[in-house]
């Protein structure tokens, strides 16, 4: 497993990280024994970065991670997230930070993160979403800075709001975040326009999420695939979204065949390697909930990089599809 620096001042982290949403719940049936086995296998295979959040099973994901970490001798970095207080997701332009990320709320929520993870200090605390409306008065981030001085937090980050990822650019330039977490994949390539160059300019660590587009870019779904109602993906791929997605994934498969790598690389490998091709990217977190998924996603690090010609060809899959997290359009 190769490692990369998490920004200028951050530690070396595995270039494939463990995305721990599904082990908390919300992605259909999942038992803890399987989750624990997956976590241990990931660490065995060199993964030293795990990403979780308060909202992943109301802290269940964090508690499982803590249970595993305490049995391991390896140094593993755990990143978690604090959501805003109840209200629109992502916050609307009319939301006040005082109502969503007040100092009292942040301190209480972060105390719960510390308790769930069984630690006195969080390696990385990320605000789970943001709005550009707070950029000129970013008091929540100043609260996190104070908590870092108190020894409660290591690195400070923001996970981008899906509808306005570029809202973090000002935060990077103002030196308010050490790390950003962004959506970047074969379909969503907009971060190359400004987010990634500014991250390089400011020495900000970059965590990539949704690199497999919630599993679709692994090429494992048919056009008529239907998820159970208790699975997050039943909403993500609502309406005709699955059919449209599979049509585009088939074109990526054709590119892999054209470049003669389809026997060596799975479509998941291609998708992860595409995200890792950018030097600004510190780690790509892939959702993992079974040993088989861990083995598939971690093997990617051992494969040679995609050729420049193929990376140029893959740019054509950038898809202006809007945001799929609400509604069916």
UniProtKB/TrEMBL annotation:
Q: NADP-dependent oxidoreductase domain spans which residues?
A: 15-315
Q: What is its EC number?
A: 1.1.1.-
**CDD domains, A to Z:** AKR_AKR11C1
Q: Which Pfam families match?
A: Aldo_ket_red
**Entries under SUPFAM superfamilies matching the protein:** NAD(P)-linked oxidoreductase
**Source organism superkingdom:** Bacteria
Q: What class of enzyme is it?
A: oxidoreductase
For whether the record's keyword set contains Oxidoreductase, the answer is yes
Q: Name one GO molecular function term.
A: oxidoreductase activity
* Keywords of this entry: Oxidoreductase
Please give the PANTHER family that the UniProt record associates with this protein.
D-THREO-ALDOSE 1-DEHYDROGENASE, NADP-DEPENDENT OXIDOREDUCTASE DOMAIN-CONTAINING PROTEIN
The protein depicted here goes by the name General stress protein 69
């Amino acid at each position: 497993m190769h490692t990369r620096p998490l920004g200028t001042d951050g530690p070396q982290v595995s270039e494939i990280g463990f995305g721990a949403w599904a082990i908390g719940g919300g992605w259909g049936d999942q038992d803890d024994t399987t989750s624990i086995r997956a976590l241990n296998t990931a660490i065995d295979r060199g993964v030293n970065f795990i990403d979780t959040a308060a909202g992943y099973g109301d802290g269940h994901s964090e508690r499982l991670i803590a249970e595993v970490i305490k049995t391991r001798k390896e140094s593993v970095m755990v990143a978690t997230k604090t959501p805003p207080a109840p209200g629109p997701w992502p916050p609307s332009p009319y939301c006040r930070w005082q109502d969503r990320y007040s100092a009292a709320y942040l301190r209480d929520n972060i105390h719960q993160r510390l308790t769930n993870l069984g630690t006195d200090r969080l390696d990385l605390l990320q605000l789970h979403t943001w709005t550009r409306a707070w950029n000129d008065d970013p008091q929540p981030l100043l609260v996190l800075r104070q908590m870092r001085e108190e020894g409660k937090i290591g690195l400070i980050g923001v996970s981008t709001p899906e509808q306005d990822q570029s809202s973090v650019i000002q935060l990077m330039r103002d030196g308010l975040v050490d790390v950003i977490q962004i959506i970047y994949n074969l379909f969503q390539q907009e971060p190359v326009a400004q987010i990634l160059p500014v991250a390089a300019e400011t020495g900000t660590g970059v965590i990539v999420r949704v690199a497999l587009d919630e599993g679709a870019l692994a090429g494992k779904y048919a056009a008529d695939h239907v998820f159970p109602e208790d699975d997050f993906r039943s909403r993500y791929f609502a309406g005709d979204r699955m059919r449209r997605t599979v049509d585009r994934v088939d074109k990526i498969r054709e590119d892999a065949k054209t470049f003669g790598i389809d026997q060596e690389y799975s479509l998941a490998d291609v998708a992860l390697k595409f995200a890792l091709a950018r030097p600004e990217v510190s780690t790509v977190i892939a959702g993992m909930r079974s040993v088989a998924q861990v083995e598939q996603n971690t093997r990617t690090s051992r494969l040679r990089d995609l050729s420049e010609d193929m990376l140029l060809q893959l740019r054509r899959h950038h898809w202006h599809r809007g945001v799929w997290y609400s509604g069916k359009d």
